[in-house]
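Course assignment 3, question 2. Fill in each field.
Student: A.L.
Task: Predict the tertiary structure for the chain below.
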Amino acid sequence: MSNSKGTILIVDDEINTLKVLSAILKKNGYDVHTSRSAEEALDRVPKVNPDAVISDFKLPGMSGAGLLDALKDKEFRVPVIMLTAYGTIEKAVDAMRKGAFNYLTKPVNTDELLTVTREAVEKHKLLLENISLKSQLKERNSFKNIIGKSHVMQDVFSLIETVSKSNSNVLITGESGTGKELAARAIHYESARSNGPFIPIDCAALPEELLESELFGHEKGSFTGAHEQKAGQIELANGGTVFLDEIGELSPNVQKKFLRFLQEREILRVGGKSRIKVDVRIIAATNRNLESEIKKGGFREDLFYRLNVVAVRIPPLRERREDIPILASHFLKKFNAVNNKTITSADSEVMRVFMEYDWPGNVRELENVIERAVVLCPADIITTKYLPRSIREMHAAQNHPGDAVNLAETEKRLLLRALEETSWNQTKAAEILGISRKQIRTKMKNHGLLPTAV
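Answer field:
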């Protein structure tokens, strides 16, 4: 591995200047290349990939300022340090306004040369690191990383690719655990807004007064506890995307204010007087049937149509069972790595259970089940012994109807047993059943097991 501090390209038509600057920089750990004209430098930049260019302002043919413009035109994002005589400092300052990193006056002071060069190289390396990180982030959030080979998922991928090229609002629908946020991230990172922020907000996680402040921000003293001014998430997402999960949970008051934002593309902080213009794309998601909510008066019809410009439905896992084996394999590799395990596969009976089970928690439930099995299984192959009891008993009831009156009763019996074993601690009961706390609350609600005060 090279110990070089960086690569520098010096451009000057004076041989002595090239020799002196090269010697100083090489002595201080830099790789140095030289050119005697801007035209030659433009040819060398893509070959040597410099971390900084040090160019005389006055050159035969194209000037140093011309070189700066040409590098920008060709999208070479390399810092340019201008060399100038005292009589042309004004031109060097003007070049800085046009994007030059800094300038040095001749004769060049050694300490100043090393300081400015070090700063330019650090800036360039930080820029390259940021570009690399953004590229990795985009790759991780690409729709290509949403796993599925089924026809229904291929249709979803095609729609995501098409939608990402637009700037329209998107409404993603689907049951809990299907991967709605993954789809939202894919749309953002495949779009022209990918360099802007992606800010997810769970509308169900905050009470109305806090959610309004979270979305729109607030002014100092606008309510008890507002000790300072705070920008809202929509304002912070300017130039990017806001993802509103569980949009159906918005209160009527917040729905009204959010509709105003969508119409005007302006926000008003809580307690504020001046509206703030923002440029964001809205992607909303829900596991509710919003059209039914509209009929019941729980959701504004005008807001629905503002959000539902493009609809993307993520199918539940039971509608794409052919994806279960590749998802299981993916999660097995993932949790092997996390837990330093070398489990090779699940046995055929486990896969049969997986393929016949309805997965009410969808992909998220499958992921939780695989993680649990990887943690508990001491062998190389996962057997049904390491599946959650709820799945084993549900599977048995499906295959032996006489063992239970029906699946609903079986599920309720399992819920009650887990809750009683944990003194009705929902989090611990969910762990026993191998599902999330949100899923267990949904199941408790379906079976009338939630306390009336909740």
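Instructor remarks: The first helix runs from residue 15 to 27. The chain has three domains: 7-137, 143-315, 318-446.
Grade: pending
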